[in-house]
Specification:
Blueprint (H helix, E strand, L loop, with lengths): L1 H15 L7 H19 L16 E4 L12 H8 L5 E6 L2 E5 L2 E2 L4 H20 L1
Antiparallel strand pairs: 1-2, 2-3, 3-4
Helix pairs in contact: 1-2, 2-3
Length: 129
């Protein structure tokens, strides 16, 4: 989602022709706080947006070596311009680890990729027909 956050950052500025629009803090707030509030509208019984016992524990670990000093004040810009999907090392959903050390825990990635290649040939043949 970081690419989408970056796109929102630039598109707001371009659409309004104003480089002061939609600063990094606003974009990360939209992506974190507002996203949890929006999801809460669709899942009203789920505790979202909090790291506490009983809440849905969806989180990631990111292997990020900051090239400049990192602080609370500049964190939004590190997220927008420093983070990339390739840096994610662990994912957890509802408290269950799905990926650890960049390896899917419960699925055979090679088997899934092989099956996808088989299905892609059939899908392409149907498309061409």
């Amino acid at each position: 989602m970081w690419d989408e956050w970056k796109a929102a950052y630039f598109l707001h500025k371009a659409a309004h022709r104003d480089p002061r629009r939609a600063n990094g803090s606003l974009i990360t707030e939209m992506g974190v706080t507002n996203n949890a509030a929006l999801a809460g509208m669709f899942f009203p019984n789920a505790r979202l947006g909090a790291l506490e016992a009983g809440a849905h524990a969806d989180l990631i670990l990111v292997d990020y070596l900051a090239p400049t000093p990192l602080s609370a004040g500049n964190l939004p810009w590190h997220i927008l311009f420093g983070f990339g999907a390739q840096m994610v090392t662990m994912t957890m959903c509802a408290g269950r680890i799905l990926m650890q050390d960049r390896r899917i825990v419960d699925l055979d990635e090679k088997e899934i990729a092989a099956r996808a290649r088989e299905l892609a040939v059939k899908a392409w043949a149907r498309y061409q027909a």
